[in-house]
Specification:
It is built from 12 helices and no strands. By secondary structure, the chain is mainly alpha-helical. It has one domain: Growth Hormone, Chain: A, CATH 1.20.1250.
Length: 269
């Protein structure tokens, strides 16, 4: 699922940049509208509800504030929510907003080059999706979140020091490597931590944090850029990610690690 989503994210910037350069800035909107209509038709005719689904939490399917409070009091779940907030915040605030502005305004790159830079991040993200998924199961959710968030922080800090197209692409590759795990592991942690909770509500709360980060990121980063410079958003985001790393390390509890589980199995005598 994650791989297909990232495949679209990888192709989008490159194709959009190519279309904008060859035609005009309105052309990508028409192209994406056509793709959206095609997706709507395929969804309508080919996607159906699974047969034989059983509601495990049938009696708890409604919205409940006490349940939400219980979910947020779960330290592992709340840290997973914080991590996904940070990743969505970074994706829209930095990757989709500030990086194109920085590349265009400071470095003078065209839309083709900017599309390639963004695609370097998303393609790398796509490439590492399956290996990172294996690592999340083997080493555990928490260490992968901490490691990949740290990589994301380092890559974010590199961008304002990048002065060429090549160095921007290199920073984007590192960013894709970091977000490859930081985008998947929190979901696994949140799912494990709420295995006995209403799934719809718990995933709704989890996604809410991501959506808030998605909306707040561009607004806050744009405000900071307008009142300082285009480098400052990178520094602020780096600090936010580092704070997140510390909080996850301190408060999140590991929910599953095959390596740890295997080590606890006594060898046969």
């Amino acid at each position: 699922f994650q791989a297909f989503m990232l495949l679209g994210a990888s192709a989008g910037p490159t194709i959009g940049g190519f279309i904008a350069t060859r035609y005009d800035l309105r052309a990508p909107f028409y192209a994406y509208t056509a793709v959206g209509v095609l997706s709507l038709v395929l969804t309508y005719f080919l996607i159906h509800d699974p047969v034989g689904m059983v509601k495990k939490h049938g009696g708890d399917s409604g919205f409940s504030w006490p349940t939400v409070k219980r979910l947020l009091s779960n330290s592992s779940f709340s840290m997973a929510c914080l991590a996904t907030f940070t990743i969505f915040f970074m994706r829209t605030g930095i990757r989709s907003t500030i990086i194109p502005l920085y590349a265009s305004t400071v470095l003078g790159l065209n839309s083709d080059a900017i599309g390639i830079i963004i695609s370097c991040a998303t393609i790398t993200n796509l490439i590492v999706t399956i290996p990172v998924g294996h690592a999340i199961d083997y080493y555990g959710r928490k260490p992968i979140i901490v490691l990949t968030l740290a990589i994301t922080a380092v890559s974010t800090l590199i961008f304002p020091f990048a002065t060429t197209f090549v160095t921007m692409c290199a920073a984007a590759v590192l960013l894709g490597l970091g977000t490859g795990g930081a985008g998947q592991a929190p979901l696994a942690l949140a799912t494990d931590a709420t295995i006995d909770e209403p799934h719809g509500l718990s995933m709704g709360v989890y996604r809410l944090f991501g959506d808030v980060g998605f909306v707040v990121g561009p607004i806050l980063m744009g405000f900071i850029a307008d009142n300082s410079n285009l480098s400052m958003p990178f520094y602020v985001t780096t600090v936010i990610i580092i704070i997140n790393v510390v909080l996850v390390q301190l408060f999140a509890k590991e929910t599953y690690s095959r390596k740890k589980a295997d080590s606890m199995i006594a060898p046969p005598e």
